[in-house]
Amino acid sequence: MYGELVLVTLIVIGLVGRSSIITTAACILLIVKLTHLDRYLPSIERRGIELGLLFLTLAILVPFASGRIQPKDIIEAFSGWVGWIALIGGAIGAYLNSKGLETLKMDPQLIVGIVIGSIAGVVLLRGIPVGPLMAAGLTAILIKIVQLFIGK
């Protein structure tokens, strides 16, 4: 019963915050729960991030597949400093994502704060909740910084 209440709350928060992603995800999970398909929740949890990343990567690569980005565009992208900064940003993002995954594996209860923080970011800051791994990576970095200051 508690899980359903949380999901309904997330649906309401998603609707109020105009976040179709949170609303849709909570609706799908509520349907899974109400149709007694709970046995699939571990699979959704285990493979959901992989599937999400797969579809996100597919969407990002469509311009290459459709021919909208040509080899000359790739060369031009790295002819200026902005392209090199984008390359560095992508590398740092991938690194943070790996640290986020490690952090969530070692300390899975952090997902509660990350999910609530993501919802707050969507509702209050009009963010997009596509980066739980990035959020976990940033959390890992922030934890290290705080530990440096408090000496733990």
From TrEMBL:
TM regions (residue ranges): 6-31, 51-69, 81-98, 110-128, 134-151
Main location: membrane
The UniProt record lists the keyword Cell membrane: yes
Key words of the record: Cell membrane, Membrane, Transmembrane, Transmembrane helix
InterPro entries in UniProt: UPF0756_TM
Record's signal peptide: none
Database matches in Pfam families: DUF441 (PF04284)
Record localization: Cell membrane
Topology in membrane: Multi-pass membrane protein
Source organism, top-level taxon: Bacteria
Family: Belongs to the UPF0756 family.
Protein name per its UniProtKB record: UPF0756 membrane protein ACFO1S_04285
The species this protein was found in: Cohnella boryungensis
